[in-house]
Amino acid sequence: MNEEKLLRAVAAGDEQAIGAVIDRYARLLWSVAGAALCGASAQDVEECVADAFVCLWQHPERFDPARGDLKTYLTVVARSRALDRRRELLRRGELPLDEAALPEGASAQEALLAREDGRALAEAVRALGEPEREIVVRRWYYGQKPREIALALGLPVKAVENRLYRARQRLRAALSE
Q1: What gap in Å lies between CA 122 and CA 165, rounded to an integer?
Q2: Which of the four CATH numbers 3.90.1150.10, 3.40.50.12780, 2.40.37.10, 1.10.1740.10 does domain 1-98 have?
Q3: Radius of gyration for the chain, computed over Cα atoms and rounded to the nearest angstrom
Q4: 108-172 architecture in CATH?
Q5: Where are the domains of the chain?
Q6: Is the pLDDT of residue 39 over 60?
Q7: Terminal-to-terminal C-alpha distance of the chain
Q8: ∠ CA 163-115-34 to the nearest 5 degrees?
Q9: According to the model, what pLDDT value does residue 105 have?
Q10: Which pLDDT belongs to residue 17?
Q11: Is 82 buried (19+), middle (13-18) or exposed (0-12) by CB count in 10 A?
Q12: What is the three-class DSSP state of 1?
């Protein structure tokens, strides 16, 4: 079933349709929420993933296809829930505070340069074509292995590895300019 039909069925309250959405995106959302909740329990990750699906089920009108696809929407919702949960856990002292992001003695200027480098990298990734962009994001942002990416995208593992290699070369060239 294509995404448009699936969304109409979810909006109509079709339990099989939401089941299909869950089957299709659960692994990705686990990766996203797990990365944002590093150090938290599996129960916390599961809650954030479930919240994303419940949000779609209860409020399908919040999804705007003009702003992106369903996968992106669910990913953003799951990550947002996970970051909220992480802040809550940190406030309550249930997660250890992360060590400083900068090495000891780093100056404000070094911090600014690091942020600028991050922005340049994000722009370079956005400039990649599909499916390279999705493969890069899945690999280095969500931490998925090439085998998981290949399974999710219906590509051979070798094709994913080759695209990662070529994408790295393009990103390196774009950042060196």
Answers
A1: 17
A2: 1.10.1740.10
A3: 18
A4: Orthogonal Bundle (1.10)
A5: 1-98, 108-172
A6: yes
A7: 43
A8: 60
A9: 47
A10: 92
A11: buried
A12: coil
